[in-house]
Amino acid sequence: MPQVRIIAKNFMDMVAALPAMKLDKLYENAFICEAILRSLPPLAKKYVLQMLCIEVPVTAKSMEEWVLPDGVSKHRVAIDRLIQLRIFTETVDRKRETTYTLNPIFQTNLKKLLLYGVVLPREPMPSNVTVRLPSSEDLEAFALGQWECFLLQLINSSQIERPSNISSSMMKIFQRGLLSQRDKEAPRLTESGFQFLLMDTNAQLWYIIREYISNSEERGVDSADLISFLLELSFHVTGEAYNINTLTEVQKNTIKDLADLGLVKLQQGRKDSWFIPTRLATNLSVSLTDSSSRKQGFVVVETNFRLYAYSTSKLHCEILRLFSRVEYQLPNLIVGAITKESLYSAFENGITADQIISFLQQNAHPRVAERVPSVPENVTDQIRLWETDLNRVEMTPAYHYDGFPSRDLFEGASDFARGYNALLWEDPEDSKKMSLVVKAENHVHMREYLSRQRQ
Amino acid sequence: MASAPSKLYADDVSLLMVLLDTNPFFWSSSSLPFSVFLSHVLTFLNSILLLNQLNQVVVIATGYNSCSYIYDSSTSTNQGSDNGRMPARCVNLLQKLEEFVIEDEQLIKEGLREGIASSLLSGSLSMALCYIQRVFRSGPLHPQPRILCLQGSSDGPEQYVAIMNAIFSAQRSVVPIDSCYMGSSNSAFLQQASYITGGVYLKPQQPNGLFQYLSTVFATDLHSRAFLQLPKSLGVDFRASCFCHKKTIDMGYICSVCLSIFCKHHKKCSTCGSVFGQAQSDVNSTSNKKRKTPET
Fold this sequence. Notes:
Chain A is built from 22 helices and 15 strands. The two termini of chain A are about 50 Å apart. Chain A has about 450 residues and is of the alpha+beta class.
């Protein structure tokens, strides 16, 4: 699977990779404890919960006793994750017995959460100050619009109506890895760039946020602070207004960037200004295992390879253009066809058939989404067939040797190459020409062997 | 916290229906005070909601004479009247619980039943199942439901038929019934309920550490249960109650048409109306004693 996907899926890996001191500092914030708890695998969550009131170390053996034979690997994954995130500390005592203890800061914070319930990070502003708050539909539309605008800018589309305020240097950072630019040529999307576009919004968001965080040190912002602020933000209530003066200076700067991404909406009142978190922000802490938040689909694929996309979005059009021939565009409808040529250009760009099919399935129009399969079978089969067509030839870098002085040397060399399992082709026995083809990686060995033989 | 943004279906998203026994006759004689019990349960509910933002908890109070929904995490918001230390979630729940207990008490005064002071478990089980059915029908994406009975009072044999019906419908819709029994002796009804539906039956040895039992055993989501060894009950009391006098019996008469159970011989089945032949009882032919055939 694509690299981007793996990176974007494991935001918590990034948290786990933080130095121990920073990680311990993060756990001082109860919201982070909560967000991290929620991101854990189900079994790990359960272990944390059952250890919550136990102050003494628990032996690994007593925990393993609960595990069924089928669950051993899941158990291992859960424990490893907990140790990685420093939620569990593993100690081996003199009797070589492994015991686990829960991180004390994490433990106290979670206990507080359980006893006193979840407290909001900050109080929303009273409604008499904040007149004309956007309705939830407006807010949703704002967030999606902002995000789409950002994505269009990211892929350097010519169709941007209004550029967002994200500085070009910041944009460059985001584009790193997604676009490649050769001298004087227009930048082109790279393989991972295409894959990025086909991911769902949440995964895309994580990718961008990840880049944003990993770049924070260069801007003089502590990455741990940034992570804690972002996670805290996700615990605010969607659509409520929060006073911007409750933020620190660094957070104020951050929130401006976030507004450009559509995570929050900024509003200016007579005296105060406030920010309103959108759904994009509150979904940040949704554990990534279930990040596929369902959106209304828009694509209908017919058995004759025609594609109808009920969308007004320019971004959708751009995405469809990646692998289909867009024929015409009506105000709310994009009509295209999946052709062999359009797919070949997609494959050349590094998009796989499975990605295209899963994109079509995930975005299936509600009318066809109920059907099984939502994309006609003949279409999916054909897409896969066309892809395998391209894979009929396998390339292996190799060296060609000929002009052997004697038959013996030639046969010796071919046996030698066979010994490395590197012989790709040799002249048939009866042929006069003595030549053989050997994998490039074994060229050094071949050369040594031949020079030894010559002496 | 706001309710689930959109319906998702992940591995461990669960809908937990908690049936809370509020029977005053039991709690007045229990070694564990109701207030302590309640604080354990509230913490447990908090922890379930903490584990996943899409988890949902519904609490149904099982009283002596009635039962009622007292808390639903999907409808109640966590904001609002935040007086002092108590979080709004608990305040709402406790308020509703108090109202319920008062109402239930008034019903007791109207008609005190004779015999064992059991709670209306059949009623609350049916309510839980109705709620789950509604969730099932709300769309293809829904949390995985399970029922947790926190029961203290002893079984009411007169509810046998209703409870068995509820158990079988839970079994049909693959909803496990977990039971945590706080009373002194084991509850045959709950043992059977958990056994039939594949849930866990547990009688805490140390009621003071109830939270630990709840968080270790009953907080396990259905996804994780495939990998863990949860406590199993040693034996299940499979005895049935007869339909005529609602007594728990070891041996009895069964209608071969509708399988109704009677403690003594009847001329006619009270459930389906089949007419039985003459029982050759108390005389010599013992082989026919238990096999009753209706008159052909």
